[in-house]
Write a structure and sequence with these properties.
The chain contains five helices and six strands. It has about 140 residues and is of the alpha+beta class. The radius of gyration is 19 Å and the shape is extended.
């Protein structure tokens, strides 16, 4: 598999380039190690593509998981409330869900927007195992 495009959520790619280039190198190695041709197992049911063989996310995910685990990575899941205010997200993302929701609703009320907040659907990101000191190495 090759990396054709990327989306840098909250400038994550730029952060890796500057502060953690070895982690970015590992990520690229895992992507390049996946043989996507083996994962073309999904048969399209769409009207215009009926019967066409597509890449199956269910088949691809274990390939990525194996590659990361072989390099000592483990999965971590985090759920949080989201808003379009980037500074507020950065401030609240480590708070518990109730505190996040309250802060986002208060901030929106102050901006005279309708109070609205949405809970994200189980954001997933993969992280390296903790160091011997028991904390994440970055």
């Amino acid at each position: 598999m090759k990396l054709a495009k990327y989306y840098s959520h909250l400038n994550g790619w730029e952060y890796l380039q500057v502060h953690k280039p070895r982690l970015w190198q590992e990520i690229k190695e895992v992507i390049e190690s996946v043989d996507a041709s083996q994962c073309r197992t999904k048969v399209s049911k769409e009207k215009t593509r009926r019967g066409e063989q597509l890449y199956s996310p269910i088949a691809l995910n274990p390939k990525f998981r194996e590659g990361f685990r072989a390099r000592g990575w483990q999965e971590s899941r985090v759920s949080y409330w989201v808003t379009d205010d980037e500074k507020l997200i950065r401030k609240t993302m480590h708070w518990n869900a109730e505190e996040q929701e309250a802060a986002i609703k208060i901030a929106r009320f102050r901006r005279s927007d309708p109070p609205r907040a949405e809970r994200s659907g189980g954001c997933v990101f993969t992280a390296r195992r903790p160091s011997s000191a028991g904390y994440w190495p970055w």
